[in-house]
Specification:
Elements (H helix, E strand, L loop, with lengths): L1 H5 L2 H66 L1 H16 L5 H12 L5 E7 L4 E3 L14 H7 L5 E8 L12 E10 L6 E9 L1 H6 L10 E6 L5 E4 L2 H4 L13 E7 L2 E9 L6 E7 H54 L12 H40 L3 H17 L3 H18 L5 E3 H18 L4 E7 L7 E3 L4 H11 L5 E10 L2 E8 L27 H12 L4 E6 L5 E8 L10 E4 L3
């Protein structure tokens, strides 16, 4: 599993393609082997069945022929007629001739494919009028001599040319000759022979119909190995047939005549003719193999289409992933934020969309971090500037206060004292936090200064719980709020500013309220207008204070604006309750005399 996960996705997809092609190729090879074996098996079964059908046809036909010959040769009246015919040759009494002719005529009608039928005595033959088969003389006829002197009662000559007689020529005429001895029913001596001539064409066409089987050849041999009939004379005369020398029936696939043949060899019953059926295996199976090759070609085309489809699918998966990887590498190396091209609506498109959103978000966050860093540097510079010799400012204010005191100008003394306290608490060596007690003293000094500026038309009330006085808060968070109250809430009447400090749900709450116009003096689009920075701007305001609080304490803290009842605005600070180790006391200030 680790090895697979360690390879590239493209390699894995190509591996899937190769495995699929391999499996399909193995399936095709297995199908070829199986189909070849099946074709051979079915072909053997069909040829074997056909061979037995042909043997059955020959057995039935030959049995009928032999039966007719046996009926004639064993019939007593026929034997008497043959004896009378033999005597007629010596005595000149031909009275039995007509009886034999009638029996020949009756028998010939029962044997299909008959070329001629002869009955022979020991000296001469009586020939049925179809065709003569022998010379008619036992002394000059090889056929008659062989039958009469044969040790077997029935004898087959195979396909041979018929013997000619004086005035009757059989040149060029041939037939399959079968002869049966006629024996005396008294002593069993041979007294004559019955000879029939059969048409080899009839045997080949009637007993082996050429339309029943294609690309097959039939060769029939007699017991002496002579060809009786064949459907392929050239094949029957081929010397290679001598290699097929078996006296037992068989059925097998052999190489013959530079080709493969399914050869079946069977023997007829009766007469023991050898029926040889040869089937050109290649020609016989060619239509099936052709169909198989057609199926293979279609399979190859489908396989090619499958490969193209897999390549396209692989590319549709691999290309977006490569684009995503390249975009990630560019982001990590060059600090760039490229966007990937989104095509489709699948899972990869979702990943691309998510990456684009993430890239935009990172870019926005980096911009915000840079902006915060710029603000932080500006604040640090401001804090640094505030630390530049603050004692000069304090000493100068003390000198002015002393001069005013010696001259008896009490108002100037009050202003200088309030201003000195304000700056002392504001600067405080540039630290970012101080206690809420110091913050309340700083805002009290500020309110005293503004009260003098506005001719005592400003009153205020500061009330803080004693357990909150030692809590640490960012510096100068109340002064901008009070300044906004003076800017937006002051009217011709007196302005009242109330400050409440208390603990709620483990948070430090500071409520600053006034009796001004309330929320109407602020833009309704936002509660915290962003500050502008310029040559004469310090960058303070509701927005800046809210951002400072969130930066210091978290996003759940900050400022919220509420209407004050019965009139005015209430600004609520929600800060983290962080007590200092130096305990303070309850703080309560009211300048309303």
């Amino acid at each position: 599993m680790r090895f697979i996960r360690s390879t590239l996705l493209r390699t894995r997809l190509l591996l899937i393609v190769f495995i699929s092609v391999f499996v399909i190729a193995c399936t095709i090879v297995a199908f070829y082997i199986t189909s070849t074996q099946l074709v051979l098996k079915k072909t053997k079964e069909y040829v074997y069945s056909t061979a037995h059908n042909v043997k059955y046809n020959f057995d039935t036909y030959l049995a009928a022929c032999v039966e007719q010959l046996n009926i004639m040769a064993t019939e007593v009246s026929f034997i008497k007629s043959v004896n009378g015919f033999n005597n007629a040759v010596e005595t000149g009494d031909w009275s039995s001739y007509s009886d034999i002719q009638n029996q020949l005529f009756s028998t010939s009608r029962k044997i299909p494919g008959l070329v001629g039928l002869e009955v022979s005595g020991l000296s001469s033959s009586i020939v049925y009028n179809m065709r003569p088969l022998t010379t008619g003389d036992a002394k000059t006829s090889a056929i008659l001599d062989t039958i009469i002197h044969s040790e077997e009662r029935i004898h087959t000559f195979g396909l041979m040319e018929l013997e000619s007689r004086p005035f009757i020529s059989n040149k060029g005429r041939d037939a399959v000759i079968i002869g049966m001895q006629v024996k005396s029913h008294i002593d069993g001596h041979v007294i004559g022979a019955i000879i029939i001539g059969l048409s080899d064409d009839y045997l080949a066409n009637a007993l082996y119909p050429p339309n029943d089987i294609t690309d097959s050849d039939l060769i029939v041999f007699d017991p002496d190995g002579k060809v009786i009939t064949t459907t392929n004379g050239e094949l029957a005369s081929n010397p290679g047939l001598k290699s097929i020398n078996s006296e037992e029936p068989f059925f097998e696939l052999q190489d013959f005549n530079n080709s493969e043949y399914l050869i079946s060899q069977l023997y007829t019953d009766p007469l023991k003719w050898k029926v040889l059926l040869l089937n050109d295996y290649r020609s016989f199976t060619f239509p099936l193999i052709k169909e198989y090759y057609g199926a293979v070609a279609i399979t190859a085309i489908l396989l090619f289409v499958l490969i193209i489809f897999v390549v396209l699918v692989t590319s549709s998966i691999n290309t977006p992933i490569n684009q995503l990887i390249k975009a990630m590498k560019d982001t990590s190396r060059e600090n760039r934020f490229p966007l990937v091209k989104i095509t489709g609506s699948d899972e990869l498109a979702y990943l691309g969309t998510t990456f684009n959103d993430m890239s935009k978000r990172i870019k926005q966050l980096i911009w915000e971090i840079n902006d915060v860093n710029d603000k932080k540097r500006a604040a640090e510079l401001l804090a640094l500037q505030s630390q530049i010799n603050p004692h000069l400012l304090y000493n100068s204010l003390d000198s002015i206060n002393w001069i005013a005191y010696t001259t008896g100008n009490q108002d100037i003394c009050s202003i200088i004292t309030a201003l000195s306290d304000f700056y002392r608490l504001t600067l405080d060596k540039g630290v970012a936090f101080h206690t809420i007690s110091s913050e309340l003293k700083q805002i009290e000094s500020y309110l005293n200064l503004q009260s003098l500026n506005y001719q005592n038309r400003i009153t205020y009330l500061i009330n803080a719980q004693d357990d909150c006085m030692d809590c640490m808060v960012p510096k100068i968070i109340l002064q901008p709020i009070v300044e906004n109250s003076l800017s937006h809430g002051f009217s011709e009447t007196k302005l009242f500013v109330g400050i409440q400090v208390y603990k709620h749900n483990n948070n430090l709450i500071i409520d600053v309220s006034d009796n001004g116009p309330g929320l109407e003096s602020y833009d309704t689009s936002t509660s915290f207008p962003k500050p502008s920075y310029g040559e004469n701007c310090h960058g303070y305001g509701l927005y800046n204070i809210n951002e400072r609080i969130k930066l210091f304490f978290g996003e759940e803290y900050g400022i919220s604006l509420h209407p004050n009842h019965p009139k005015g605005l209430l600004v609520r600070f929600t800060l983290s309750f962080q007590p200092n180790s130096n305990k303070g006391g309850k703080y309560y200030v009211n300048n309303d005399s």
